[in-house]
Amino acid sequence: MNTHTYEISSRDGASGYLTIDLRALEHNYHLLLQRTAPVPVAAVVKADAYGLDASRVAPVLYDAGCRDFFVAHFGEAVRLKTFVEPDARIFVLNGLQPGAERRCADLGIIPVLNSLDQVENWSRTAVSRGDALPAILQIDSGMSRLGLPPEEMAALADDSALLKGVDLLYLMSHLASADENTSKQNGEQLEALRGASGLFPKLPLCFANSGGIFLGSDFHGALARPGIALFGGVPSDVPGIAVKPVVRLDVRVVQTRTVPAGSRVGYGGAHQTTKETRLATIAAGYADGLPRSLSDRGAAYHDGVRLPIVGRVSMDSMTIDISALPPGTLKLGSLVEMIGPQQPLEAIAADAGTISYEILTSLGNRYHREYR
Ligand SMILES: *Cc1c(COP(=O)(O)O)cnc(C)c1O
């Protein structure tokens, strides 16, 4: 085996650049804090902080005053512990799989209990250790995904033995339509959560994700838990949300060419030119988080000019029509913008038929990353 270590990600000669603006992240955290004040704001940093690298993101949020972090899986929580100081609380949204309880308790990680099974396992662990173990209790307020349905909440409230040894910190639920300001479902879920809250009147509430924060203070509870808005995603259709973009993506040109009318472009010959066309092949594809659904739909930008994607997006490259630019503008090594001021995250997501969350979490590790 070769024992040298090589710097893989070097700025020079990279195929693409993912720039992550940590100042904007900090700005967004403070913006959300202003919205919820005096209610504190946790940070949801699941999926490696929405693909932006929890090891870089979490310390910035910690330094900005954040002391509560949510991840989805227990393994993510264990990893996150090394990126924040010991006074930070780390919560596991999915709760625990059987067998993870002891280690979770040892590490001081706090599960969200989503079912009677998870309650039972956590309670048994607490009793066998002889100490109280903290947890969040989640109620399903109408999403049918995670959390106890109302009947099970009632059963739990009736039989205090079921929660023996468990120190409940919050009653939590999750909004299904928080991005739609006028959705009736928001109010319905709030009512359901308040109903459950009647069974556990002492428990503070934890409800709002990013979109929920902009539904108003009724939704803020005692701890808000945004993710996407921290990372520059516009979280809802409420106008005027001043979230700053965090991510910028620029991709290098690999090759340019001029083809005559009738030329086929890309896999399957799915695109055929109708006139002489100048093309550029750029160095990112679906393995770099630019979905195949952008084929013949999306675009890159250069100097304010839209450069449509032509033909199918490949694994490592795609072809764009650069006829709208003066000849010679782009050549080997030139940069085009995929995400940035000319093409916000939401715009590329819409072209791909998806949401900003999926774009962010798919960007992958092949770009040179620069944290500012
Ligand atoms: C992902 C997630 C969040 C964060 O949602 P955003 O829309 O990204 O703010 C909050 N709560 C739960 C339960 C989640 O799964």
Tell me about this structure.
Helix content is 27%, strand content 22%. It folds into two domains: 22-231, Alanine racemase (TIM Barrel, Alpha-Beta Barrel), CATH 3.20.20; 247-371, Lyase, Ornithine Decarboxylase, Chain A, domain 1 (Beta Barrel), CATH 2.40.37.10. Strands 1, 9, 12, 13, 14, 15, 16 and 17 form an eight-stranded mixed sheet that branches. Helix 1 packs across helix 3 and helix 10 packs across helix 11 (356-362). A hairpin with a 2-residue loop joins strand 13 and strand 14. It has helices spanning 22-36, 46-50, 54-63, 74-80, 101-107, 116-129, 150-158, 184-199, 210-213, 345-351, 356-362, and strands spanning 16-20, 43-44, 68-71, 89-92, 110-113, 133-138, 166-172, 205-206, 247-259, 264-265, 271-272, 277-282, 299-302, 305-310, 318-321, 335-339, 368-371. The longest helix has 16 residues, at 184-199. The chain has 372 residues and is an alpha/beta fold. Residues 44, 46, 93, 174, 209-211, 225-229 line the site of pyridoxal-5'-phosphate. It catalyses: L-alanine = D-alanine.
How would you briefly describe this protein structure?
The protein is of the alpha/beta class. The protein has helices at residues 22-36, 46-50, 54-63, 74-80, 101-107, 116-129, 150-158, 184-199, 210-213, 345-351, 356-362, and strands spanning 16-20, 43-44, 68-71, 89-92, 110-113, 133-138, 166-172, 205-206, 247-259, 264-265, 271-272, 277-282, 299-302, 305-310, 318-321, 335-339, 368-371.
